[in-house]
Design a protein that fits this description.
It is built from nine helices and two strands, in the order αααααααβααβ. It has about 210 residues and is mostly helical. The chain has a two-stranded antiparallel sheet with strand order 1-2.
Length: about 210
């Protein structure tokens, strides 16, 4: 009997190796606050060889994009659930929508910190730029219909283009999260920022 791995086993092993490398990169970011780490540091943390790294990623930047991508998938799931809940029930309020957005968008500054690093890379790397644009567009495409439907549920509509409004809400929230290292009551700032967009950039819907 052959000792060679079957195709299914090989795929599972490669998937497991990739996941371990992503976890190692995330742990290193937690410790250093930087994506400027070496391949050697990642594989040492993961317990692999350089060959295992290069079988899964071309560069450390690509690895950290995978970290960001993994977190983004979790955000999409939470966002759909939380804003979906804001659409249910007979009597919805502005506060219901605000809480849905705040609970749906990630509060962790790590997610934004990694994204900030990728944004810097994107200014000089066309591949990173294309990947980040695609994920950003997907993020807004996921949020926009849920957000606009939630507003209509409480009888309000944006005063600007729906896509622009969605980006404004996200920008306000990102700015609020960035205060976490300077101000302890980050949740209060997040709520105020989102509520400001919902009340300041919307108007009652016409009957």
């Amino acid at each position: 009997m052959s000792d060679l791995p079957t195709p299914d086993r090989a795929v599972r092993r490669r998937s497991s190796t990739r996941a371990t490398l992503i976890a190692a990169a995330e742990a290193l970011f937690d410790e250093t606050g930087s994506t400027s780490v070496s391949v050697e540091a990642v594989v040492s943390r993961a317990g692999f060889t350089r060959g295992a790294f290069y079988s899964n990623f071309r560069t450390v930047d690509e690895l950290f994009f995978a970290v960001y991508e993994q977190q983004a998938e979790a955000v999409f799931a939470v966002l759909e659930r939380e804003l979906g809940d804001a659409l249910e029930g007979e009597h919805r309020t502005v506060d219901d929508v605000v809480q849905g957005v705040v609970r749906g968008l990630p509060p962790e500054d790590k997610w934004y910190a990694i994204r900030s690093v990728l944004l810097t890379r994107a200014r000089h790397d066309a591949d990173v730029n294309a990947l980040l644009r695609a994920h950003t567009d997907r993020f807004h495409d996921t949020l926009q219909p849920l957000l606009i439907a939630s507003l209509r549920r409480i009888g309000r509509v944006p005063t600007v283009d729906d896509a622009l409004y969605t980006r404004a809400v996200v920008a306000a929230h990102v700015g609020a999260v960035s205060q976490s290292v300077l101000f302890d009551a980050t949740d209060a700032v997040r709520i105020a920022a989102v509520e400001g967009c919902i009340l300041g950039l919307t108007t009652p819907a016409a009957d």
